[in-house]
Design brief:
Blueprint: H1 2-21, H2 26-49, H3 62-74, H4 76-100, H5 112-122, H6 128-138, H7 142-171, H8 175-220, H9 222-235, H10 240-250, H11 254-264, H12 277-293, H13 298-301, H14 304-330, H15 334-359
Helix pairs in contact: 1-2, 1-3, 1-4, 3-4, 4-7, 7-8, 7-12, 7-14, 7-15, 8-9, 8-11, 8-12, 9-10, 14-15
Length: 364
C-alpha cells in the first residue's frame, strides 16, 4: 500500500509534466509544472520515509504511460479529466478512512484541483482569458468520456453475454442464440442511444429555458438583477461597495450582463450546451455495440458447445480488459480489477444460463 501511494505521486508528477509539455499557453503550462513539482516533493517525502530508492521516482507506471498515449491521440484534456477524477477519488478515500477511524479532518485531504485554483488566483501573470481557458480544460469531459467509453462497452458486454447464456441454456447453443444475441445487441444499443439523446436534449432544453427566463427578468427588472448580482459577489467575500460597483459596470452591457447572470446565478456554462445530442447518441450506440458483439461472435461461425465455450472465453477476456481499463480511474491493481470484473460477469452469465436451463424456453 505504501509503494502504491508512492507510485500514485510519481504518476501524477509525470502526467502533470506531460500536460505542461503539451500546453501551448505558457501561463497554464506553468501551473502544470508547479503541480508536477508539488507531486514530486510528495514522492520524495514518501521515498525518504520508507527508505525507498529515489531512482524509482523516474519510473511512471503502465497506467500513466497509457494515459499519456491517450493524450497524444485524443488530446490532453482527456488526461487532465482522468487525473482530476483520480485525485478526487483519492481525497475522498482519505476522508472516509479518517471518518471511519474517528480522526480529525484537517483540510489537507482536499484534492489537488483546489491547489490548482489557488495557484491561479495568486499568480498575477495569469490573465482572465487564460483563467477561462484553464477553467474550460478543468471542466473538460475528458475523464468522463473515457469512463463513458469503458462503462458503455461493459454494459453491452455484460448484458448481451447474460442474454446469450440464458438463451443457450434453454436451447443448447443453436441458431436461436445468434438471433437473440443480435437482437439484444441492436435493442440495447438503440435503447442506450435514445437514452443518451434524451438526456442531452432535455438538459439543453431545460438550460435554454432558464436562460430565456433570466433574459426576460433582465429586460423587465434590470434594477433587481443588478442587486442580485451584487449580492452574489458579496457572498463570495467581495466588499459591498466593490460588489455594487462591479454589478453596476456589468449591467451597462446587457449581453455581458446576461452571460454573467447565467453563469453566476444559474450556474450554467453556455459552452456545455453546444454538445450535439445526435453525436452523443451515436457515440453511445457504438460503444454498446463494441461490447455486445463479443459474446455473439463465436455463434457467427460455429454452434453448440464449441460456440458456447468460445463465447465464455471471449467474454471473460473482454471483461478482464474492461477491468484493466477501469484502473485508469481507480489506480487499483490490474489483476484485482480485471479478475473482479471477470468474476462478476461470469456470475451474471451463470445465473441466466441456469435460469434458461431450468425453464427450457425455446426461442424461435
Amino acid at each position: 500500500m505504501k509503494n502504491q501511494s508512492l507510485q500514485t505521486e510519481i504518476d501524477a508528477c509525470y502526467l502533470y509534466r506531460k500536460l505542461a509539455e503539451n500546453e501551448s499557453d505558457d501561463a497554464v503550462a506553468n501551473i502544470f509544472r508547479q503541480m508536477s513539482e508539488i507531486e514530486q516533493s510528495h514522492a520524495e517525502a514518501f521515498a525518504q520515509r520508507e527508505n525507498i530508492s529515489l531512482e524509482k521516482l523516474i519510473t511512471p507506471s503502465w497506467r500513466a504511460k497509457v494515459l499519456d498515449t491517450i493524450g497524444k491521440v485524443f488530446g490532453y484534456d482527456y488526461v487532465l479529466g482522468a487525473l482530476m477524477d483520480t485525485e478526487k477519488s483519492l481525497s475522498n478515500s482519505i476522508i472516509k478512512a479518517k471518518n471511519k477511524n474517528n480522526l480529525a479532518i484537517t483540510g489537507a485531504e482536499t484534492n489537488h484541483v483546489k491547489i490548482l485554483w489557488s495557484i491561479i488566483e495568486n499568480d498575477k501573470t495569469i490573465s482572465g482569458t487564460q483563467h477561462a481557458k484553464f477553467e474550460k480544460s478543468h471542466r473538460s469531459v475528458g475523464g468522463n468520456a473515457i469512463r463513458a467509453a469503458v462503462l458503455g462497452g461493459n454494459d453491452g458486454l455484460v448484458s448481451n453475454f447474460s442474454l446469450v447464456m440464458g438463451v443457450a441454456g434453454a436451447t443448447g447453443g443453436g441458431q436461436p442464440v445468434l438471433l437473440a444475441g443480435l437482437a439484444g445487441l441492436l435493442a440495447g444499443a438503440l435503447s442506450m442511444a435514445l437514452g443518451e439523446w434524451i438526456s442531452v436534449k432535455s438538459s439543453q432544453e431545460l438550460y435554454e429555458n432558464q436562460m430565456a427566463i433570466e433574459l426576460d427578468e433582465l429586460e423587465t427588472n434590470p434594477e433587481g438583477e443588478e442587486k442580485e448580482l451584487a449580492l452574489i459577489y458579496m457572498a463570495k467575500g467581495i466588499p459591498e461597495e466593490q460588489a455594487r460597483a462591479m454589478s453596476a459596470e456589468i449591467m451597462t452591457d446587457k449581453t455581458k450582463a446576461h452571460a454573467v447572470l447565467v453563469k453566476e446565478e444559474l450556474g450554467i456554462n453556455p459552452e456545455e450546451l453546444q454538445g450535439s445530442a445526435i453525436e452523443a447518441a451515436l457515440y453511445s450506440f457504438f460503444l454498446f455495440t463494441i461490447g455486445a458483439i463479443i459474446p455473439v461472435c463465436p455463434f457467427l461461425f460455429t454452434s453448440g458447445t464449441q460456440a458456447l465455450v468460445l463465447s465464455v472465453i471471449f467474454s471473460a477476456m473482454g471483461l478482464f480488459l474492461i477491468g484493466t481499463a477501469i484502473t485508469l480511474f481507480t489506480g487499483k491493481s490490474i489483476w484485482f480489477s480485471g479478475s473482479r470484473q471477470v468474476v462478476f460477469g461470469l456470475i451474471a452469465a451463470a445465473i441466466t444460463f441456469g435460469i434458461g436451463k431450468l425453464i427450457g424456453v425455446a426461442v424461435i
